[in-house]
């Protein structure tokens, strides 16, 4: 089996279907089907069982899987090393970041970065999923986290604070928020449970709705639906929101900029990482107060 067939085997195994594998590989369904048919024909055995749940590996397929994963690891290592050899800051940098970072915050960085490095193209993947840099899902990952367990090179650039935001009208309609610890008011809820509310300065405010993204929460607060407890550096620029008076900010998370060690010598990746880190550091007060 060649690498293209191994790559298809891995994609089908991970996606559980030919269509999902085609989407992940950015090819059409027929290409994946032909590659699988060719692999099974050359080996003289079925690699997948088909059922209502999708495609699952047969015993021969399971025996072949670790070899395919090892081949993938070696191919990706070669690609990373080749990418890391460039010396001129030009080409494409693939960046993954949370969707909430992709609004005014990142666009402001991108505008200044483009002016300084016009030959570098930035392709963004906006996702809360942690990108696997070893598999080259991205070159750089900008994350909000308390700690990073991955074997990656990077830096914790700044720790940001969270704060309570609402419209001036909402605040005027609830004048005793601090005295009552939020009694009668509402928080815009996050996904998951509501245990985070007890850790805020207004623990008696009740949750209203559950919106999984920070930009959705800030827009809901801007529409007068309640208060949002969100990173201050993302909500402070919103024209329709103000911080709730008398409510102190609380600890948030760290902003990390991460890359795989093999890309440290890549001029375009290094330029991007250094620029973003310097941009944030120069505006540290926006994140910490």
What does this structure look like?
There is one protein chain. It is globular and about 75 Å long. The protein has a domain at 3-83: Orthogonal Bundle (Arc Repressor Mutant, subunit A), CATH 1.10.10. A hairpin with a 2-residue loop joins strand 1 (48-51) and strand 2. It has helices at residues 3-15, 18-25, 29-43, 59-83, 104-116, 168-173, 177-180, 214-222, 232-235, 267-282, 284-288; strands spanning 48-51, 54-57, 91-97, 120-126, 140-145, 153-166, 186-189, 206-210, 228-231, 242-243, 250-259. It has 11 helices and 11 strands. It has 289 residues and is of the alpha/beta class. The strands form 3 sheets. Strands 3, 4, 5, 6, 9, 10 and 11 form a 7-stranded mixed beta sheet that branches. Helix 1 (3-15) packs across helix 3.
- Name the quaternary structure: single chain
Beta percentage is: 15-25%
Topology pattern, helix = H, strand = E: HHHEEHEHEEEHHEEHEHEEHH
Distance between the termini: 58 Å
CATH superfamily of the domain at 3-83: Winged helix-like DNA-binding domain superfamily/Winged helix DNA-binding domain
Reported by name, the CATH topology of the domain at 3-83 is Arc Repressor Mutant, subunit A
SSE diagram, text form:
Layout: H1 3-15, H2 18-25, H3 29-43, E1 48-51, E2 54-57, H4 59-83, E3 91-97, H5 104-116, E4 120-126, E5 140-145, E6 153-166, H6 168-173, H7 177-180, E7 186-189, E8 206-210, H8 214-222, E9 228-231, H9 232-235, E10 242-243, E11 250-259, H10 267-282, H11 284-288
Parallel strand pairs: 3-4, 3-5, 7-8
Antiparallel strand pairs: 1-2, 5-11, 6-9, 6-10, 6-11
């Amino acid at each position: 089996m060649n690498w293209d067939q191994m790559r298809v085997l891995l994609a089908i195994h991970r996606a559980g279907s030919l269509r999902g594998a085609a989407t992940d590989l950015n090819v059409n369904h027929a290409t994946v089907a032909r590659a699988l048919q060719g692999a099974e024909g050359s080996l003289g055995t079925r690699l997948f069982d088909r059922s209502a749940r999708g495609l699952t590996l047969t015993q021969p397929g399971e025996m072949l899987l670790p070899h395919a994963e090892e081949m993938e690891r070696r191919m990706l290592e070669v690609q990373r090393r080749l990418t890391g050899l460039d010396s001129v800051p030009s080409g494409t940098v693939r960046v993954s970041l949370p969707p909430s970072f992709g609004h005014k915050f990142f666009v402001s960085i991108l505008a200044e970065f483009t002016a300084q490095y016009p030959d570098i193209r930035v392709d963004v993947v906006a996702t809360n999923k942690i990108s696997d840099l070893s598999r080259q899902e991205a070159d750089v990952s900008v994350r909000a986290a308390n700690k990073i367990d991955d074997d990656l090179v990077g830096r914790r650039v700044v720790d940001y604070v969270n704060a309570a935001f609402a419209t001036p009208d909402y605040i005027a309609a609830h004048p005793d928020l601090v005295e009552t610890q939020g009694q009668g008011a509402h928080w815009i809820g996050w996904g998951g449970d509501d245990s985070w509310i007890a850790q805020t300065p207004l623990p008696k405010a009740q949750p209203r709705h559950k919106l999984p993204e920070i930009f959705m929460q800030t827009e809901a607060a801007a529409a007068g639906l309640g208060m949002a407890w969100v990173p201050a550096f993302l909500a402070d620029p919103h024209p329709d929101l103000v911080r709730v008076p008398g409510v102190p900010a609380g600890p948030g998370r760290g902003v990390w900029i991460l890359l795989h060690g093999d890309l440290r010598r890549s001029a375009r990746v290094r330029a991007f990482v250094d620029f973003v880190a310097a941009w944030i550091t120069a505006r540290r007060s926006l994140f910490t107060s």
